[in-house]
Design a protein that fits this description.
- The structure is a single chain.
- By secondary structure, this protein is α+β, with helices and mostly antiparallel strands.
- The chain has a single domain, classed as Aspartate Aminotransferase, domain 1, CATH 3.90.1150.200.
- 37% of the residues lie in helices and 23% in strands.
- It has helices at residues 9-14, 18-34, 73-78, 80-83, 103-120, and strands at 39-43, 46-51, 54-61, 65-69, 87-89, 92-96.
- A hairpin with a 2-residue loop joins strand 5 and strand 6 (92-96).
Length: 137
């Protein structure tokens, strides 16, 4: 089955089953309120938030849950107790549709990821020094 090419987050949410639209809208609002300066786009067929062109967080709705793609090691460590009841795997935090949306937690994760993304992508942060051409060590 071909993937739908969404043009906007509005289109993405509108295409979801009716019962899930409200939940995904609340997730979207939590992220937008927490990091209003983030650019909202579609990437990898899902809502994506970027700062200074760098991806900080994505979310997607699935059959039984919605996921935040923001679970770096630092996020997991910082929110360890609050995330204990959720399934976390390979950079993904899964929230069941059957439970209330933890908007405040999602907002705090978004703010944390924004800070993480900005720290990572500041000029000179983690940049490798180039070796001079022809020099051997």
């Amino acid at each position: 089955m071909a993937k739908i090419e969404f043009k906007s987050v509005d289109a993405y949410i509108a295409a979801q089953p009716e019962a899930e639209r409200n939940t995904l809208g609340r997730v979207r609002n939590a992220v937008r309120e927490a990091v209003p300066e983030a650019d909202e786009t579609i990437s990898y067929h899902m809502p994506t938030y970027k700062l200074q062109g760098q991806r900080m967080l994505c979310f997607a709705g699935w059959k039984e849950h919605y996921s935040l793609y923001a679970a770096t090691g630092r996020v997991i460590a910082a929110f360890k107790d609050e995330l204990a009841s959720y399934e976390i795997e390979k950079g993904t935090i899964r929230f069941p549709f059957s439970q209330p949306v933890p908007e405040e937690l999602i907002g705090r994760i978004a703010k944390f990821r924004a800070k993480e993304a900005l720290e990572r992508w500041q000029p000179g942060a983690g940049a490798r020094k180039k070796r001079s051409a022809g020099r051997r060590r």
